[in-house]
Amino acid sequence: MSKVRVRFAPSPTGPLHLGGVRTALYDYLFAKNQGGDFVLRIEDTDTARYVEGAEDYIMEALEWCGIIPDESPKHGGKYAPYRQSERRDIYDRHLAEFLKTDFAYLAFDTAEELDEIRKEFDQNGEVFAYNYITRNRLKNSLTLSDEEVQQLLDDKVPYVVRFKMPVDRTLNLEDIIRGKFSVNTNTLDDKVLVKNDGMPTYHFANIVDDHEMEISHVIRGEEWLPSLGLHYLLYEVMGWEKPEFAHLSLILKPEGKGKLSKRDGDKFGFPVFPLNFKDPETGNISKGYREEGYLPEAFINMVALLGWSPANDREILSLDEMVHEFDLHKVHKAGARFSKEKAEWFNHEYLKFKTDEEILSLLKTTDAINLNGAADDQLLKIVSLVRERATFVKDIYRDGHFFFETPNFYDEKAVKKAWNEDTPSVLNDFAGILTEAETFDSENLKKIIHDFAEAKGLGMGKVMMPLRLSLVGELKGPDVPDILQILGKEESTARIRNAVNNIQ
Ligand code: GLU
Predict the structure, then answer these.
(1) Are the C-beta atoms of residues 158 and 196 closer than 8 Å to each other?
(2) CATH number of the CATH domain containing 280
(3) Which of 40, 97, 98, 350 can pair with 72 through a Cys bridge, CB separation 3.0 to 4.6 Å?
(4) For residue 263, what pLDDT is reported?
């Protein structure tokens, strides 16, 4: 068997969305599982839809995910160039061959003429297609004489090259995920393969490149399934061996119906892109998983399981483990429902694998966080105390921010619950005892609080609650002795006195 070579072939028409990431990931997993190559090819023949920065975005997103191509515009490779806009001479060479077959014809119809016909069809309640019926009454090399065609060419009248779809043939197609199915050619139209500027369209460039780059497997989104018949025929007409195909089903909205869209992301508050993307035209920023605080390994694990079930219902798999386990035959035919809760669950699970030190270094690079110059040993203690409930690294700050800033506000409900007219004197006494404490570790502090409550004849809650309120500003957070230990004697007593002075 020839070497497995799989390509991911995005068009740089915008940021990669979740579906695109999943396609790239499955391309990669399959290639690596088979000991093959993973190729990134940029399909940028559609200049009208080209978006500045999109190619760099795609590359950066793949790198963040750890899906590194063996060959790409950036990495180069034996089959370079990997940008379609740089492969024009290759397409021209194959176009010359294609034009010699019975399956190519030139069409001179202008956009206005086609619009007219479309309108006519509309009026009769029909949908126009340039196909085996209509081509016989349109302006093309099938209906015009050789002399007329030559005249148009001499006059430099623009034309496109179309594929002459055979009449009434049954095509037997095969998809690794969906199995066998057939399609009648009469349901297919005569696609434009070369535009009037001489640039190939997706269909032609894609087939030429997959052939030239010796691609063995095409794994792509199901939106390309309707093109499979045409692609089969193109391979046949060109006399080339075709790759195997697998079409991935959609990623569905959280409620399960319909394709997941950018608008769903905005509506339900989750990103649909791997990285932030700034639209070069509008300046609008679409949110990315990276900036939202997801760990890349959690993100790709989540994406991988949107449509694939590893053996034994395993859910947590590293990229290497996924490579080992991946099986296209276990990819689902049905759409995969996206769940924000599940995405968060994955991040929470992956956060658990990190050491306190790793979390701290991530925390230090998180935006909009002020650690107030705290020393690492202090920070590590804080991480270890609050990490359990955190879904994202930034939650450590959310749940532990009071370690870095003295409360300047006391939660009203908490005050009602924890405070009464005796509390100031209780706390003042306690602060006095704290200043005397010789060892300020949580063990000893626990004992001090206990003894104090006992001596005062108070329940533990009567001491703990106002203490917590003074230190945190609300009735949340880790154990009070732990908080005291981290804050230290001076800051703890200052906070207690501050609360006594400020809470009425
Ligand atoms: N350029 C196409 C896209 O962006 C590639 C489709 C394919 O993989 O054949 O969807």
Answers:
(1) yes
(2) 1.10.1160.10
(3) 40
(4) 85
Indicate the average pLDDT of the chain: 96
Please report, as a single letter, which amino acid is at residue 242.
Answer: K
* Ligand 1 pocket mutation, candidates 39, 191, 206, 219, criterion most atoms within 8 A of CB: 206
Q: Give 41 Cα–ligand 1 centroid separation in angstroms.
A: 9
Cis peptide before 310 (omega within 30 of 0): no
**For 165, phi and psi rounded to 5 degrees?**
-65, 125
How many angstroms is it from 9 CA to the middle of ligand 1? 5
Q: How many residues does the chain have?
A: 504
Which residue among 11, 215, 222, 247 has the greatest number of ligand 1 atoms within 8 angstroms of its CB, and so is best to mutate?
A: 11
Q: Which of 309, 331, 353 is at the close of a domain? A: 353
Pocket test for ligand 1, best of 175, 224, 227 (most atoms within 8 A of CB): 224
Dihedral (CA of 462, 464, 469, 474) sign: negative
- The catalytic site residues sit at 262
Angle between helices 460-472 and 423-436 (to 10 degrees): 80
Strands (E), 9-155: 37-40, 104-107
> Are 484 and 364 within one domain?
yes
In contact, 261 and 253? CB cutoff 8 Å: yes
The residue whose CA is least distant from atom 3 of ligand 1 is 10
| Cα maximum dimension of the chain | 113
User: pTM for the whole thing?
Assistant: 0.93
Dist CA 459 CA 467 (whole Å): 13
Q: Ligand 1 in contact with 423 (CB < 6 A)?
A: no
Whether 243 is covered by a domain: the verdict is: yes
Distance between Cα 316 and ligand 1 center (Å): 29
Domain of 107 in residue numbering reads as 92-194
Task: Give domain status of residue 56, yes or no.
Answer: yes
Nearest CA residue ID for atom 10, ligand 1: 10
Dist CA 229 CA 377 (whole Å): 64
User: Is residue 82 assigned to a domain?
Assistant: no
Tokens of 47: 């200049």
- Does ligand 1 lie within 6 Å of residue 220's CB atom? yes
Residue 278: partners with Cβ closer than 8 Å, 6 or more residues away: 53, 284, 285
Indicate which atom in ligand 1 lies nearest the CA of residue 219: 8
Please give the Cα distance from 356 to 387 (Å, whole number): 8
The atom of ligand 1 lying closest to the CA of 218 is 8
How far is C-alpha 81 from the chain's CA centre? 26
What pLDDT digit, counting tens, does each position of 222-254 carry? Answer: 999 999 999 999 999 999 999 999 999 999 999
Under a CB-based contact definition with an 8 Å cutoff, are residues 244 and 218 in contact? yes
